[in-house]
Amino acid sequence: MKKTFVRLLVIIPVIAIQALWLVLLIRWLSPYSAVINFILSIFAAFFVLYIITKRDESTYKILWLLIILTMPLAGAALYLLFGNRRSARILQGLLKRAELPPVTGGPEVLKELEDSDPRMSQTMGWLQKKTGCPLLKNESVKYYRLGDELFPDMLNDLRSAEEYIFVEYFIIANGVMWNAMVDIMSEKARQGVDVRVMYDDLGSISTFNANDVRQLTERGIKCVTFNPFVVLSGNLNYRDHRKMLIVDGRVAYSGGINIADEYINQKERFGHWKDIGFRVTGTPAAGYARMFAGFWNAFSKQPVPDGYTFIDPSIPEKTDGYVLSYCDSPFNADSTSTKLFIDLLSQATEYAWFCTPYLMPGDDLVDAMIMAAQRGVDVRIMMPGIPDKKLIFRMSHSFYQELLMGGVKIYEYIPGFLHAKSCVIDGKIATVGSVNLDHRSLFLQFENNSLFYRSSVAEEVMADFLATLERCREIVPYNQTQYAPTSRFRRHTAHIRSALLSTAQRP
């Protein structure tokens, strides 16, 4: 409350001064308006030059330029409070102090890949260096086409826990799914298993609260909140969108599935809920434990023991391709996931298929998709047929025409809401994780994603895409001349609205 009050004390007077200036300009200061306008113009020009020279996505920069040029004083104040990463220096500091040292996979893993595919080894080497997460060989991996299929296996693995259970999700909601997990985790806690739960405060704001935390604590389960929600906080938009469950560093689950009943179709919201996930075993699971520990240690006074995060880079006897699981941070100089998708598109020769519930990519990613399509790659995007957020759905539609005219194919899942986040390239490269193709995921939120190569996961993602395609409708480009000017205007301005709603606090 104190921080909120301080920010209000800053913002409200600044806006009031801007309004007073307009009144004074009209009534009393008209003789001096030219001089004052000149001073404000100089002030705004410095801010404009500063923003232009920053490495930011173009739509985001245009948004702030419009605000500052329209309201120099108020716009500059809002930018200083919400438009740059300085506003989140406390959160940055917490995460930086808790950050674990970078880990690389065994040199033989990257060397093996370099010998067989030099181009892909460059991608893996770059991603490993940029994120501090290791390239590893899969021991075994299982892909799930629905949350309904994942849930029973997750419960069985929870029952087998002997040392620790780590749970980290954007949304946790009471219901069949969560209650079943809590019953098992409570029993394990009584047996001496170290059980820790982390959830995002804004993502779970209507489904999980302090009372739920208290109940977990009473059952012996440690629980912390990521980035507690504070109105007008400079940290407000930086959310933990990651999804992971780790058992003993030997089994890990991830994907798009949160802990709520709609994700396993125990509750119907927006028709049939289509989501995906995966289960990895062996060393890759320990990589997820490291990601969890880095966030947990930032907000808890009970740090994760070092032994829980050890990664053995040795290659198992039986393998299922390569995997690099990484965390994407909004505090990076640029979007890791955006750069990765652009790089993967450049490698595609046959097809590049994406699943995403929201479509508001940056200009660079749109250009990469169109470029791939125009050189003959079959680029497809699968979207929900029934939206969960109508406004965001309409904004996503504003990107359709440009992509369609560029040769990209777009499909919508008729039975309901598609929440899957995946990409498959030429049947040998696949990504599965929490990353949506929108401003929030690519630029604002903490995300986790896994890049699989020459793994059965790529074949499974491809087969799932084709099977789901049979329940989709294809979107066709429309003739702009047949649309009223007001309709075209609404469509064009949706690009700016998407940036306004999604990047009001972009670093």
Using brief descriptors, characterize the structure shown.
507 residues, globular, 3 domains, nine-stranded mixed beta sheet, alpha/beta, Endonuclease, Chain A, seven-stranded mixed beta sheet, 18 strands
Could you explain the architecture of this structure?
It is a single chain. The chain is an alpha/beta fold and 507 residues long. Helices cover 46% and strands 18% of the residues. It has helices at residues 2-27, 33-53, 58-70, 72-82, 89-98, 107-116, 118-131, 147-159, 176-190, 210-218, 283-299, 336-347, 363-374, 390-397, 400-405, 439-444, 456-469, 485-502; strands spanning 135-137, 140-144, 164-169, 194-200, 222-226, 244-247, 251-255, 272-274, 277-281, 322-328, 351-355, 378-384, 409-413, 416-418, 422-425, 429-433, 447-453, 472-475. The strands form three sheets. A nine-stranded mixed β-sheet has the order 1-10-17-16-15-11-12-13-18, with helices on both faces. A seven-stranded mixed β-sheet has the order 2-9-7-6-3-4-5, sandwiched between helices. Strand 6 (244-247) and strand 7 form a beta hairpin. Helix 3 (58-70) crosses helix 18 and helix 7 runs antiparallel to helix 12 (336-347). Residues 482-488 and 503-507 have low confidence and may be disordered.
